[in-house]
Amino acid sequence: MITRVPAGSTGVVHAALLYRGEGAYLDTVLPFVAEGLAKSESVLIALPQKSLALVRQALGDAADEVTMADITEIGRNPGRILGWQAAFAAERADRPVRITTEILWPGRTVEEYPACVQHEALFNMAFAGRDMTALCLYDAEALDTIAAADVGCTHPVLWQSGSMQISPDYQPVAVLDRYNQPLPNSATAVHYTVRTAGDLGPARSFATRYAQWLGLSADGVTNLLLIMTELATNSLQHAGSACRLAFWQHNGNLVCQASDQGRLDDPLAGRRPPPTDDATAGRGLYLVNTIADLVRSHTSVNGTTIQAYLRLDSSKDPIT
């Protein structure tokens, strides 16, 4: 199993396993978890429900020593996974952390996929210097050629044939650049421009009417207003420009888009908890990632666009 940090590492072992079948899955995950427990490490397992139940049963009594979570709930928005993992690690700062996750599952959408790749590309940057071992699981039979290549580009270590190997294709910065693409818009979008803080109230009323017309729940409307307000306020305070809001419906989601003339230089912005010594720094986008079902962004010298997705009726769109 993975027992040491590769030469040149910052203290993070970030490995990917492309498994084929349930047997290969358990043959790697169970020893990986057992090794962590034997070393008194804090172990976190975040998998889809079916796989989580399989691992829990196979672990037996040892399952009580492990933190388990349904990744399809925690990680519905890939942009909040790093923050959740960081919070887990921060609560256990006195010892090493071991994590196994599976962020691509049947039912992931085309819109969600780029955010998943960006999450993996940012992992080593987010946890640089931390004593952490991560094993990311991918069903090799479900990956197309591009997705399989992305695994190698976003993981410095690959777990193959029972041993750990350095990935020759690891290029996280290049991956981030490749997936920083202009976002799709909609000809049916409705628009509202926030130029000053005084425009926020009317903008919230505008967004409320549109969301209610689409049938968004009361809780959903509350979340939309929080998202819209945070994004618009960020534009006014940090970009120093007006915020061009747009709203539309896409595949059972209400999309809230915010565009401004600023440039988002920190790829980890909104993905990690804000500094404890400054309750406002980085809070807005982090809150958006926490609330939304999906967050996508594109930034360039011409400005930044952020899209937040909210499901209109999750009961009609089950996670599989």
Automatic annotation (TrEMBL):
Keyword terms of this UniProt record: Kinase, Serine/threonine-protein kinase, Transferase
Molecular functions (GO terms): protein serine/threonine kinase activity
InterPro entries from the UniProt entry: Anti-sigma-factor_SerPK, HATPase_C_sf, HATPase_dom, MEDS_domain, RsbA-like_anti_sig
Domain Histidine kinase/HSP90-like ATPase: from-to ranges: 198-308
CDD domains linked to this entry: HATPase_RsbW-like
Keyword Kinase (UniProt): yes
Domain of life: Bacteria
Ribonucleoprotein is among the record's keywords: no
Domain MEDS: 14-156
Protein name per the record: Sensor histidine kinase
